[in-house]
Amino acid sequence: MNNTEHIKTSVREQYSKIAEQDRATNAASCCGVGAPGTCDIMADSYAHLEGYVPDADLGLGCGLPTEFARIQPGDTVLDLGSGAGNDCFVARAETGPAGKVIGVDFTPAMIRRARENAEKLGFNNVEFRQGDIEDLPVSDNSVDVVVSNCVLNLVPDKRRVFKEIFRALRPGGHFSISDVVIVGTLPDKIVESAELYAGCVAGAIQRDEYLQFIEEAGFEGLTVQKQKPILLPDDLLLQYLSADEIKAFVAAGTGIFSVTVYAEKPGKAEKPVFKSLELAETKACCEPGSGCC
Fold it and tell me: What is the C-alpha radius of gyration for the chain, rounded to an integer number of angstroms?
């Protein structure tokens, strides 16, 4: 798994298959990958969140970043690795009709499924763009909030992703991202597994290194909003390790965690001028006696 293009090809192939599976199948495995019942890892329930669309929830997340993202009405929200659109639709409920949500995913099958969901729901302020989150298809300083759920661990160059997030955010903008990190060292056989890379485990990096990348990109106000342990069951580990190797792995005390991390781009948060003008025109038009409504 040392070759970047090989990693991306493997992940794209796995997630193309996942796009055609239902939530029950995905949630019963490791991020939709592997035999059912092999991973007691990830998905938190979205059922209590406004805007939740069950058909768009493939059970691939490891947190609830939109719940922590402090999205305001009128915000432009960018979701990295948007899948079938789950977090985009929750974000849409928070940003409202005056806002906009952009989902980016590099798997064509996921983009198709997300667009179909948006069309069925009549959501005209949610769009999905195919692209690589290491090279985001959005302009500089163009979004207010970035969210992502269990995706950055799939990307070979995580440092570059945080630089791209910084570029895309407006001054004063912020992100809330859920991801998988580790404390300690994973066995080589797990790290080298293409299946577990797509399954959100083998591609995880050290927690301290992950947080360091965020600070190096220029963000401030770094906060770990939530952290929970992830347990790899023996029936999964036995696919890659011997019984003695599992004992050594457990004894080593390696921790695998789901974290939700928040940080801000320095600067004063300001809405684009065109939004302010639209609001001003609407207010003037709707005042009693204006004669234009």
Answer: 20
